[in-house]
Amino acid sequence: MQSVAADLAALLADVVPRLARITAFIAGGVFVANVAVAFGLVRYVAGVAGWLTRPANLPDEVGTAILTTAASTTAGYATLAEYREAGLLDDRATLVAVVMNTFFGFVQHVFTYYVPVLIPILGVTTGAVYVGARAGIALLITVTGVVAGGLLLSESNVDRSALDDVDATGPEDDDRTDRERVRDAAEKSWGTLRRIVPRLAVVYTLVIWLVTTYDVAALTDVAEPITSVLGLPGEAVPVIAVFTLDTTAGAATLAGTEAGTFTARTAVASLLIGSILSFAVSTFRRSIPFQYGIWGASFGTKVIVVNTALKLAFISATVALLLAPVW
User: Where are the transmembrane segments (predicted)?
Assistant: First the structure.
């Protein structure tokens, strides 16, 4: 009994801080977005985003959510979820918007992780090539979303009448006081939190229990035959294995190898292979809890499958390009 209680306490100690952090991001991001709508600011931001959404046959307001992702992935996704639940977007249109989110979700990590952390570890040359490769992959996925929207979406996938309430709340049409607008935004944000956070708590608890109970690291055993076939140095195996579980530690492992072991191309290819294998781990640790929390299990699974398939395809193509013998 004591052992079970100790395990439960350890599990909660891991889950509660994660849940608190993601809840704070959701609360802050959704509240800011709702305040922007309440004060009519969404119309001005949406105009800037129109160049992205119009070729994809999406309303300009969806571009606001996409651009918001550059500041907060959680806020951007939560806003898209609101649009979907309001009936503005059907499932196909929402998936296109999610794909278009990719590059803007990457942008925030450039300033919070890649530049201050990863480039100093890898060195300027290897670090810049790696970050450039990841940026190019993210941008191509976003462009794929724009093209897919242009080809697959029409007016039948978007109910623009759902924007009536947003259009009616411009500064000249809204006689609410500033305090009333902020209070209404807070009430809407609270409704979003009540819907998402309980689901998020259940999924996070389950996922963390699975990760701590079973040996996820065993998944990296597939790395060795891959590196052998691709002609990477033997030192790539531990780099890939560690990078699979922790990107910072994997980068440090690569940086600790003897000078001349890796070229910039083989180093970046090794890290990208590690990122491919890490999808299995990150799906359990982050994607499932996050996406299920935002969308629910059914649509969340679709988002995970589409995101993962596109990332695997473009990362694999990039690895093939880096290791092409014509270089």
Answer: 22-42, 62-81, 93-115, 135-153, 196-216, 267-284, 304-324
Tokens of 211: 């990760």
Task: Map out the domains of the chain as residue ranges.
Answer: 17-322
pTM, 2 dp: 0.73
What is the Cα–Cα distance from 34 to 191, expressed in whole angstroms?
Answer: 12
Rounded CA separation 125/266 (Å): 13
Q: What does the DSSP 8-state code read for residue 258? A: P
Poorest-pLDDT segment among 3-7, 140-144, 213-217, 307-311: 213-217
Read off the tokens for 307.
């995101």
pLDDT tens digits, 235-268: 888 888 888 877 877 888 888 787 888 999 999 9
Q: What is the pLDDT of residues 84-133, one digit of tens each?
A: 988 999 999 999 999 999 998 888 788 768 887 788 889 899 999 999 99
- Name the one residue in this structure whose structure tokens are 């590059």: 103
CA dist 215 and 233 (Å) reads 26
Tokens of 238: 């531990």
Q: Quick one: tokens of 138?
A: 């993210």
- Which residues lie below 8 Å from residue 306, measured CB to CB, with a gap of 6+? 95, 98, 99
Q: What are phi and psi of 71, to 5 degrees?
A: -95, -35
> Do the Cβ atoms of 132 and 100 come closer than 8 Å?
no
13, exposed or middle or buried, with CB in 10 Å at 0-12, 13-18, 19+? exposed
Q: What is the DSSP letter of 61?
A: H
Helices 247-255 and 236-245 pack at an angle, to 10 degrees, of: 160
Spatial contact of 130 and 275, defined as CB atoms under 8 Å apart: no
In the predicted structure, residue 300 carries a pLDDT above the cut 50: yes
Name the H helices within 40-161. Answer: 41-53, 60-68, 73-86, 91-100, 102-109, 119-122, 124-152
**Assigned token pair, 303:** 């988002």
Q: How many CA atoms lie within 13 A of 184 on its CB side?
A: 14
How far is 277 from 34, CA to CA, in rounded Å? 38
